[in-house]
C-alpha cells in the first residue's frame, strides 16, 4: 500500500509543483524556497543537537509556541528545526520565534517521498520528530523508523477523520503503529487514535491553553480600539468561504442602525482578502482595511482584518468574538485564544474538529452556540444591551481557559525519555 502511495506521489509531483506556482499568483510566498520542498537545504550551521518540530500552517505554528519555548529552555544545548507546509505558517513562525535567534531554524517539510525525507534527515540529523496535531505522513514515519522516534503531540482526531483514515487501510494503520508516542488533547481523541493502532497514547490536554498573550498583541489591540472609539465591536474570526456572505446579509440591519456596532471581519485565508472586500462592496456597506488604517479613525461599517499574525490583537479589541468555520460544515476553529482574553464567544453548530473544547467552553458559561447567522446577530444584540451578561460570559471564558493550562509541561515530561 505504501509503495502505491509513493508511486502516486511521484506521478503527482509535477502537478503539485504547478499548483504551487499557480497559488503563487496571489500568495508570492508559495514561489519561494522551492528546493526545500524537494529536500535540498543550505549549510547546516551550528546549534548542537537538533529537535525537529513540524507545524503545517498558522494554527499549528501558534499552538507550538509554548512547546518550543519549553523545549529550548529544557535543552539549552539543542536547537529546533521548525518545518511547515504553507508560507503563512512560515511567516507566523518567523514572527513568533525571532526571539530565539539561531537556536530555531525554519524550513519547508519535503513532500512525502522517501528519498526527499532521507535528504532532510541526513541534512538536519534530528534526535526526534515531533508532529503537531493531525500531521501523519506515512513515508516520513517509515523513513524515520528506529533512528528518529516520532511523536504526535497536541493530537486531535475527529470521528470524521477517523473514518477517512480507515479508508486508507494499512497505509494509515501502519503509520499509527510506528508512532513512538501520541499525546492527545482529549480522551475522545486518544480513543480514536488507539483505534488506528497507535501503541502508546497519553492524554495531556491542549497545549493551546498554555499560549501566552504577547504584550505586542495587547498593544496592537489597544491601538486598534483607540481608532474605533466607543462603538461596540463584533469580531468574526477565521471565517471561511461562504460564511462571510451569510454574516454580511444577517448583519445588514444591525449595521444600518445609528451608532451601529463595527463588524470586524477576519478571513482565515489571506488569499481571500480581496474576495471578501468585494462581498462587502456588493452589499453597499462601507469598508476599511486594517492594512490601510495607519492613524486614521475607523468610521466604516466593516473593518477587514487583512493582516497576518494579529489575531490576538483583534480579540483584544473586540467586545464579542464569533469563531468562524462553524456556520457551515467545516469543523470550526480554535476558541481558546478568545477565551484566554476574556471575551464572550459565539460559535456555529459545526464544530466537529474542536468538539470537546467547544462543549466545555459552553458548559463553563464562556461560549454560546448559535444555529445560524440570523441567531448570531440576535445573540449579539442581546449581549450588547446586557452589560452584565456580556461581562459574565467573558469572565467565565477566562476562567475556563485558565483551568485547562498545563498540557505543555505534561508533554515535555513524556518527550524527555525520547530525546536523549
Main sheet record = 7 strands, parallel
User: CATH-wise, what's the superfamily of the largest domain?
Assistant: 3-Deoxy-D-manno-octulosonic-acid transferase, N-terminal domain
Task: Output the CATH class name of the largest domain.
Answer: Alpha Beta
| Helix segment tally | 18
Which structural class best describes the helix and strand composition? alpha/beta
Percent of residues in helices comes to: 40-55%
Radius of gyration: 22 Å
Low-confidence stretches: none
Span of the ends, CA to CA: 33 Å
Tell me the strand order in the biggest sheet. Answer: 3-2-1-4-5-6-7
CATH architecture of the largest domain: 3-Layer(aba) Sandwich
Shape label: globular
Overall number of strands: 14
Instruction: Give the tally of structural domains.
Output: 2
Approximate strand percentage = 15-25%
CATH topology of the largest domain: Rossmann fold
Calculate the mean pLDDT score and round it: 93
Textual characterization of the structure:
The protein is α/β, with parallel strands linked by helices and 420 residues long. It has two domains: 220 residues, Rossmann fold (3-Layer(aba) Sandwich); 189 residues, Glycogen Phosphorylase B (Rossmann fold). The chain contains 18 helices and 14 strands. The strands form two sheets. Strands 3-2-1-4-5-6-7 form a seven-stranded parallel β-sheet, with helices on both faces. A seven-stranded parallel β-sheet has the order 10-11-9-8-12-13-14, sandwiched between helices. It is globular and about 65 Å long. The relative contact order is 0.11. The model has no long low-confidence stretch (mean pLDDT 93).
Amino acid at each position: 500500500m505504501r509503495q502505491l502511495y509513493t508511486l502516486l506521489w511521484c506521478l503527482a509531483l509535477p502537478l503539485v509543483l504547478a499548483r504551487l506556482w499557480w497559488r503563487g499568483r496571489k500568495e508570492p510566498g508559495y514561489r519561494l524556497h522551492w528546493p526545500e520542498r524537494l529536500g535540498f537545504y543550505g549549510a547546516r550551521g551550528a546549534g548542537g543537537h537538533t529537535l525537529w518540530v513540524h507545524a503545517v500552517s498558522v494554527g499549528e505554528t501558534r499552538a507550538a509556541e509554548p512547546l518550543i519555548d519549553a523545549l529550548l529552555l529544557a535543552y539549552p544545548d539543542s536547537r529546533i528545526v521548525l518545518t511547515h507546509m504553507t508560507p503563512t505558517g512560515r511567516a507566523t513562525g518567523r514572527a513568533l520565534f525571532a526571539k530565539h535567534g539561531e537556536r530555531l531554524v525554519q524550513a519547508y517539510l519535503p513532500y512525502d517521498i522517501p528519498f526527499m525525507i532521507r535528504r532532510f534527515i541526513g541534512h538536519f540529523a534530528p534526535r526526534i520528530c515531533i508532529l503537531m496535531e493531525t500531521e501523519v505522513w506515512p513515508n516520513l514515519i517509515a523513513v524515520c523508523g528506529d533512528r528518529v522516534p516520532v511523536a504526535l503531540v497536541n493530537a486531535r482526531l475527529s470521528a470524521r477523520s477517523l473514518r477517512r483514515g480507515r479508508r486508507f487501510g494499512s497505509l494509515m494503520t501502519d503509520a499509527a503503529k510506528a508512532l513512538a508516542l501520541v499525546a492527545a488533547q482529549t480522551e475522545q481523541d486518544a480513543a480514536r487514535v488507539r483505534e488506528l493502532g497507535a501503541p502508546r497514547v497519553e492524554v495531556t490536554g491542549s497545549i493551546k491553553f498554555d499560549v501566552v498573550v504577547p504584550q505586542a498583541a495587547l498593544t496592537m489591540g489597544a491601538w486598534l480600539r483607540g481608532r474605533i472609539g466607543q462603538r461596540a465591536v463584533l469580531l468574526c474570526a477565521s471565517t471561511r468561504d461562504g460564511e462571510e456572505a451569510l454574516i454580511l446579509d444577517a448583519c445588514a440591519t444591525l449595521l444600518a442602525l445609528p451608532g451601529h456596532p463595527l463588524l470586524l471581519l477576519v478571513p482565515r485565508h489571506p488569499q481571500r482578502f480581496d474576495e471578501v472586500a468585494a462581498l462587502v462592496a456588493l452589499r453597499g456597506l462601507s469598508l476599511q482595511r486594517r492594512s490601510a488604517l495607519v492613524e486614521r479613525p475607523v468610521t466604516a461599517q466593516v473593518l477587514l482584518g487583512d493582516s497576518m499574525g494579529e489575531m490576538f490583537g483583534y480579540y483584544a479589541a473586540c467586545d464579542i468574538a464569533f469563531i468562524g468555520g462553524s456556520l457551515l460544515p467545516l469543523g470550526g476553529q480554535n476558541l481558546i485564544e478568545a477565551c484566554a482574553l476574556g471575551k464572550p464567544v459565539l460559535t456555529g453548530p459545526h464544530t466537529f474538529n474542536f468538539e470537546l473544547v467547544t462543549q466545555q467552553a459552553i458548559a463553563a458559561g464562556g461560549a454560546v452556540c448559535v444555529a445560524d447567522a440570523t441567531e448570531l446577530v440576535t445573540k449579539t444584540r442581546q449581549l450588547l444591551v446586557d452589560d452584565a451578561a456580556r461581562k459574565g460570559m467573558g469572565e467565565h471564558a477566562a476562567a475556563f481557559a485558565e483551568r485547562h493550562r498545563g498540557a505543555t509541561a505534561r508533554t515535555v515530561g513524556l518527550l524527555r525519555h525520547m530525546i536523549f
